[in-house]
Amino acid sequence: MTIEIKVPPLPESVADATLINWHKKTGDQVSRDENLVDLETDKVVLEVPSPKSGILTEIKIKDGSVVKAGDILAVMTESSLVSASKDNNHASDASSSKNNSASDTSKNDSKDKKVSPSVKVLLKEHDLDASMIDGSGKDGRITKTDVLDYLRDDEGGSVRSNDIDMPLQQASVAAKELVSNDGQRVPMTRLRAKIAERMVEAQTNSAMLTSFNEIDLFEVMELRKKYKESFLEEHSVKLGFMSFFSKASVEALKKFPIINASIDGQDIVYHDRYDIGIAVSSERGLMVPVIKNLDELSFAEIERSIAELAIKAKNGSITMEDLTGGTFTITNGGTFGSLISTPILNSPQSAILGMHGIKERPVVVDGKIVIRPMMYVALTYDHRIIDGREAVLFLVSIKESLEDPERLMLEI
Length: 412
Description:
Helix content is 36%, strand content 24%. The strands form 5 sheets. Strands 9, 12, 15, 16, 17, 18 and 19 form a 7-stranded mixed beta sheet that branches. By secondary structure, it is an alpha+beta fold. The protein has helices at 82-97, 102-112, 117-125, 144-155, 168-175, 190-205, 218-235, 241-255, 299-315, 320-323, 388-403, 406-410; strands at residues 2-6, 17-22, 29-30, 35-40, 45-49, 54-59, 66-67, 72-78, 208-216, 262-264, 267-269, 276-278, 280-282, 285-287, 290-291, 328-332, 351-355, 358-365, 368-382. The longest helix is centred in the middle third of the chain and has 18 residues, at 218-235. The chain is built from 12 helices and 19 strands. The radius of gyration is 25 Å and the shape is elongated. The protein has 3 domains: 1-99, CATH 2.40.50.100; 100-187, E3-binding domain (Dihydrolipoamide Transferase, Irregular); 193-410, 2-Layer Sandwich (Chloramphenicol Acetyltransferase), CATH 3.30.559.10.
């Protein structure tokens, strides 16, 4: 029986996708539910599993092609004998593989490694075999981080883990200076192109303004120090700063609902939910997974949700549902060492909170100079609907909650 492998229905608002990587080639045997190909949309990578066991007889669309829902990707022939055949042949394959030379083994391992087109470019650029590198991605897939870490260890260089946020050509220079004076031209991924589009859109279609404040995190840090062991033991998750900032943000949003609103044409839409986006850096670029109804969650539930979404973003399993519906966003540039910045709105939201690095500084408390862990915070907002008064008082509310964290427990 012949089966057509088609592009599955795409998420709402996604018109097309790019075929980035076939995991099988013509003539290969495949098992039911085995991933055949990866499709990249503006936000997520979709896997297309095999509906039946069989043989892939024809691939109709090549890597790099743009496809739409319903397009025929390949044709396969169903066979109920494939699984049994693969099991029967496994022993003989294993036996014969012992007789292969080291070079043959390396080639086979290289073929079995799952790599994206961008990783292939990086491997080729540095004359590396995929079999030399352990993949940390989903199903053992090699990521750009894996390649850069390998180069760092091999060459004794200083490639940083956050080089994955740099364009590929810059990360390659940091790993090994092999790029010519003319540089290197690498096409944007769909996600990077979408990020660029949304950033320009935010700059063009909103009146962005940023207000700043600083927060003394002494009480929060003391609270974390006091309860971190028992919190971890009780909830199996660490007590981080993001749960405090998320809770403080929700309490401030309740006081100033315009910050949680958005513009739709000539209307202001006041949202009665608190779906908070948490910006996460991934190999593919910046993503903003959304924690739904955060106001109903405990500190432990927030920390667990953040950890789960971060893992999904980094291993490529994040879904469109995880990335949509946010009403307000928090981004933490402090994890990369940023002291102060002006974050850009995540349209159609009207405000975004920027966290930064915590630095010990001398401050005046009760008339005395003391050393305190201080953080600058920034609120970028759409001045078309949010006035400076609301923006400043919103930040003051967050400051008050975090400098006296018991307020968060009492919701005052």
